[in-house]
Specification:
By secondary structure, this protein is of the alpha+beta class. It has one domain. The chain has helices spanning 6-22, 127-135, 154-157, 173-185, 188-191, and strands at residues 43-47, 60-63, 77-82, 85-86, 90-98, 102-108, 114-119, 196-197, 212-215. Strands 1, 2, 3, 4, 5, 6, 7, 8 and 9 form a nine-stranded mixed beta sheet that branches. A hairpin with a 2-residue loop joins strand 3 (77-82) and strand 4. Helix 2 packs across helix 4 (173-185). The longest helix is centred in the first third of the chain and has 17 residues, at 6-22. The radius of gyration is 18 Å and the shape is globular. The N and C termini lie far apart (53 Å).
Length: 217
């Protein structure tokens, strides 16, 4: 059998991907029940992969598949979509996980706890999360790999380089780093009450890296 050329392989992957999106997900999308008022921010339609993961301590994690029209951030309203199916309106809550190339948000107004994993370039992090990501970038898990949209970009292929930059005033960084240090040293029982983040000190499962879990960002 003649091996497929690179363009043929890319075309085949694209066809498989398109076919997968036509098939209803085997795990139903959750139903969100948020009721934004007319004065609230607009609802962002977010296309996700048909199958969620179980990468967090509880609940399902849905993964963004295509670039949303605007960057996603805490408190914005979302509607998850797979093909013609949708979830209704939900709202992004706090950041619960930082990785090198992804950020995971809790989702409120859902019948059961679930989260949304977003590529870093398609998310808008607050100052605390931005500094935490920058300061700990090389300690964060390399996996999952960057979204396919970014994998062929040299800066994203180099594990020794941080391809991300955030807009933070230089004079604010010392105060933010001080807050991060206080959270890191705070008793675990207090961390979930603090509007900030902390690095996980729990042992990661075999074969995985310790990640940076956050609280209230």
């Amino acid at each position: 059998m003649t091996p497929l050329s690179a363009p043929q392989q890319t075309d085949m992957k694209r066809k498989h991907r398109a076919k997968a999106k036509e098939v209803p997900p085997t795990i139903p999308l959750p139903t969100f029940h948020a009721t934004p008022s007319p004065s609230d921010s607009p609802v962002h339609d977010v296309t996700v992969l048909p199958l969620p993961t179980m990468e967090e301590r509880s609940g399902l994690t849905w993964v963004v598949d295509t670039r949303p029209r605007r960057q996603l951030e805490s408190l914005c309203y979302i509607r998850l979509r797979v093909g013609t199916l949708s979830t209704g309106v939900g709202r992004l809550g706090q950041v619960v996980m930082l990785r090198r190339h992804w950020v995971t948000f809790a989702v409120s107004d859902a019948p059961a706890y679930c989260t949304l994993r977003v590529p870093i370039p398609w998310a808008k992090l607050n100052d605390l999360a931005s500094v935490a990501h920058t300061s700990h970038f090389f300690d964060l898990p390399k996996l999952p790999r960057p979204h396919p949209s970014f994998r062929d970009i040299p800066h994203f292929e180099n594990d020794e380089e941080n391809p991300y930059e955030f807009e933070i005033w230089d004079d604010e960084i010392p105060d933010i780093e001080s807050r991060l240090e206080r959270i890191k040293n705070a008793p675990r029982s207090l961390r979930n009450r603090h509007p900030s983040c902390h690095r996980s000190t729990e042992r990661a499962p075999e074969g995985e890296s310790n990640d940076t879990r956050t609280s209230g960002m």
